[in-house]
TrEMBL record:
The chain crosses the membrane at residues 192-212. Disulfide bonds join C155-C172, C174-C183. It comes from Rotaria sordida. This is EGF-like domain-containing protein. Residues 144-184 form the EGF-like domain.
Amino acid sequence: MIFIVYSILFIVGNFIGNVQLEDGSLCAGKNVTSQPVIDYCNSQDGYLIFRCCRSYDNESFIAVDLMDSNLTATPDFAHFENFNLSVVDLRSNPQLVPSPDDFLTLKYLDYLILPEQFDCPGGHDIWEVIDKTTDPVGNRCLRQKDFCSNSTDMCDENGSYCSANGPHHFLCLCKHGYHGYKCLRSGKFPTAAFFASTLVATVITSAVLYWTQRRHVK
Ligand SMILES: *[C@@H]1O[C@H](CO)[C@@H](O)[C@H](O)[C@H]1NC(C)=O
Ligand SMILES: *[C@@H]1O[C@H](CO)[C@@H](O)[C@H](O)[C@H]1NC(C)=O
Ligand SMILES: *[C@@H]1O[C@H](CO)[C@@H](O)[C@H](O)[C@H]1NC(C)=O
Ligand SMILES: *[C@@H]1O[C@H](CO)[C@@H](O)[C@H](O)[C@H]1NC(C)=O
Ligand SMILES: *[C@@H]1O[C@H](CO)[C@@H](O)[C@H](O)[C@H]1NC(C)=O
Ligand SMILES: *[C@@H]1O[C@H](CO)[C@@H](O)[C@H](O)[C@H]1NC(C)=O
């Protein structure tokens, strides 16, 4: 019994260990050299740790310097749980090309610096300030606008509303009291009725099986 408990603890521990390693892997490699990342980290009293800046309360990574990483695609930031990024520097990645799902979930991204071949996603609809940097050269995208505030028709079903989900990304969520496909159903999901009917069905099935199978037991 104790052996089984230890085995489970070992497996769970291993799993958690791996997840943490994976979360941190975006930060692995060189130390931060990006001046915008360093300045932002200092302004937030954060801690520089390899490529990243960790927040003052150590809860999340708030900035990352991904310069000189030979990237061909933007990392999937949604994959890393503890990242709540405000500043991302991707310059000096000459092979990096844009794709539609870039920066998904980065709601609070406010300062994005891209290599020169990579334009600010969404352009002036999304960023208040767009300009160029030198040394290294790149495009600067500053102050993300609230995509939903200017697109009331995005989620036009009555029960749904728009929720920003990173630059040029949004989600249609259901308002309180609505659920289902396109939030078209109103009223509470009938949880109690659902479980009650499942329970009744289970009890009846078990009883039937019990009586039919038991007859053969001598
Ligand atoms: C990175 O920074 C740490 C301390 O913050 C230092 O010990 C280490 O030598 C640095 N590594 C490089 C490659 O500069
Ligand atoms: C965050 O971690 C650093 C060490 O890396 C520590 O000095 C600091 O006290 C921690 N801050 C909090 C709020 O736990
Ligand atoms: C990027 O590629 C160059 C040349 O192919 C190599 O020297 C360098 O170490 C690579 N950098 C990283 C971070 O992988
Ligand atoms: C993420 O960062 C933003 C901006 O600093 C902050 O307002 C927000 O509360 C943070 N969210 C989480 C879940 O830490
Ligand atoms: C809203 O969108 C219109 C047209 O796309 C644009 O001209 C206007 O500046 C936007 N307003 C805000 C606050 O983003
Ligand atoms: C939305 O609600 C209005 C009245 O509140 C109704 O006239 C309209 O038909 C509804 N539209 C949809 C798609 O349910």
